[in-house]
Structures are given as C-alpha cells and as structure tokens.
Amino acid sequence: MYEFITHTWNPIKGKCYHDCSYCYMKKINPDAQPVRLVENELQGDFGINKFIFVGSGTDMFAQNVKDEWIKEVLDFCLVKTTRKAQQERTRFMFQTKNPQRLLQFISHPLFDVERKQAVICTTLETNRHYPDIMNNAPLPQERAEAMEVISKKGIDTYVTIEPIMDFDVNEFVSLVKQCNPKQVNIGKNTNQNIKLPAPTIGKAVEFISKLNDFTKVHIKANAEILNKALLQAKIVLK
C-alpha cells in the first residue's frame, strides 16, 4: 500500500467491522472469516531498521476487536524490539479509522514518545460523510478530533487520503491540519467495481497545494496523474 513501508503484518485478521464499500480486501478476500487474533503470527523476530504497517488487512482498533488481542500485539512489538539500539529499532505504523479506540491504549510503552517507534495514521477520504460508502466507520470529524489528541501527546501522526473522494477544499484542509500530520499520503480509488464521488484534478491540485504549506505530501503511485498535474501547475512538494 505504501512505497515507504518495508513490510506489512496482520496478527489480527478477518472481516473488518467498518465495512467500507471500496475496501480492497473485499476483492482479495470476499469470504473473510470473523475477526480474530492469529496466535502463530506472534512468533519470530522483526529484525532491525524496518518500517512495518501493522494491520494492513483489517483495522485492529475497530470496536469489535477484543482489548486483550490489541494488548497482545502491542506487547509483542515492544518485547521484540526493546533490546535493539535506538538507531536500529524497527518502527511500526498503526493505521486506523477509529483513533478514539486507539487512545484507550495510548499509555502502552510502545507509544512512549522517547522510543520514536510508533506512527499513528488515520484515513480521511474526505471531510464529507458518505454513509453508503463509509458504512460503520467513524465520521471524519471524529477521527480528526482523536488524532489531534494523539498529536498533542508528541506522537508522530500521518493522514492517508485514499481513496480521495470529493470534498470541500477549505473544510478538508482544516480537518487534515487538525491532525497535525508529519506526512499526508494521497491515493485514488483502485476498485474498478465501485463508483465513488471524485474531485476534479484542478480541485485536488488546489487542495494539495494548501496541504503543502504545512506538511509533507506523498502522492502514491496509483495517483501518478496528480503528480503530473502538480508539475504542470509548477507546484513542488516538500
């Protein structure tokens, strides 16, 4: 999903509670089993200098994931990396559409800001609410509010805008800025079976230009058309 990620890891598997209509996992695994902790994933060693996306296949902070499963995963990440030197320590990205639930675990030692080991990312496809698309996912505004709290604790935050859906420029910029992201990742809809409300290229360029004023913007490979449009508009990303 990300060019800057070295590995993905899914110790919690199964059908995601959020049930977003566009989710790529529905195409990969349409008959997903109920969510569960896969114990044999809690084995081995991560090695060093990796950047691991934890939970790329299902949201491990969705409301139907048991507290004890989340704690087991966080504990495993901590134990398997504690003895590594700071400059060699593997990092983890936890991406969730329910950062409010993640806040229940924010005192876990893995999130200690001195470790500089955890990045917390949320998805904001738009500032608007599309109930038939987002289904059980928390509202974008709720996600941003929780991310603001997380950021104020000194933890690095990312925002992923994928699939980018039609939005209100200034309102969406404000919502992203509320998360205080170190990086914003932007990608387009890749599920050809789902029609989503998409912004015009010009609107997306205006939006990205405003994001570029306060954060790093990463355009994913699946949205290369945006890089070309930025080049034509003579906008250089940080």
Question: Could you describe the 3D structure shown?
Answer:
The chain has 238 residues and is α/β, with parallel strands linked by helices. The chain is built from 8 helices and 9 strands. Helix 3 links the parallel strand 5 and strand 6 (118-123). It is globular. The model has no long low-confidence stretch (mean pLDDT 95).
List its traits.
alpha/beta, seven-stranded parallel sheet, two-stranded antiparallel sheet, 8 helices, globular, 238 residues, 29% helix
Outline the fold blueprint:
Elements: E1 7-9, E2 12-13, H1 24-28, E3 36-37, E4 51-54, H2 67-79, E5 91-95, H3 99-102, E6 118-123, H4 131-134, H5 140-152, E7 156-161, H6 169-178, E8 183-186, H7 201-211, E9 216-219, H8 224-232
Parallel strand pairs: 1-4, 4-5, 5-6, 6-7, 7-8, 8-9
Antiparallel strand pairs: 2-3
Helix pairs in contact: 6-7, 7-8
